[in-house]
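May I ask for a protein sequence together with how it folds?
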Amino acid sequence: MPIVAWTQPSDIENRWLGELPANVGEDYLLTAIEDVEDQLIILVPELVEEFDASIPLERVKRVVARVVIRHLRNPDGFRTLSEATGPVTASVTFSGDDPGGLVVTPDDVQVLQGRPAAKGAWAHSMIPERSFELMGRPPRDPWGTY
């Protein structure tokens, strides 16, 4: 008996720009959704207990769709793709520890739990303060961001 998923293939199709790849059918989407939702239940046990109370269904659908779409954009798991035609070269680099994998990331879990995703490291200016004095401007706040 198939498991009833919270997310449906239409939730992914509605978030995909254009047509889905030709080899991706509804059966594949249902399997991918089931795999992602299973990971979420393991990573966020309160999902089942607090479902629809503190974790809205629409947020679950959004997180599942973004994981599946990440996978569909790079199903072969390439880190970098390059293509050259004559003098023109185009390349794309996929980030993450497991590019193209059907993997829930810590950022996905944070979004699901309603916490803001962690931002990058803080910035520190490498410009010496005396440079600002020479330009006639006050030095920047060393703890501020640009």
Summary: The longest helix spans residues 26-43. The chain has a mean pLDDT of 78. Residues 9-134 form one domain.
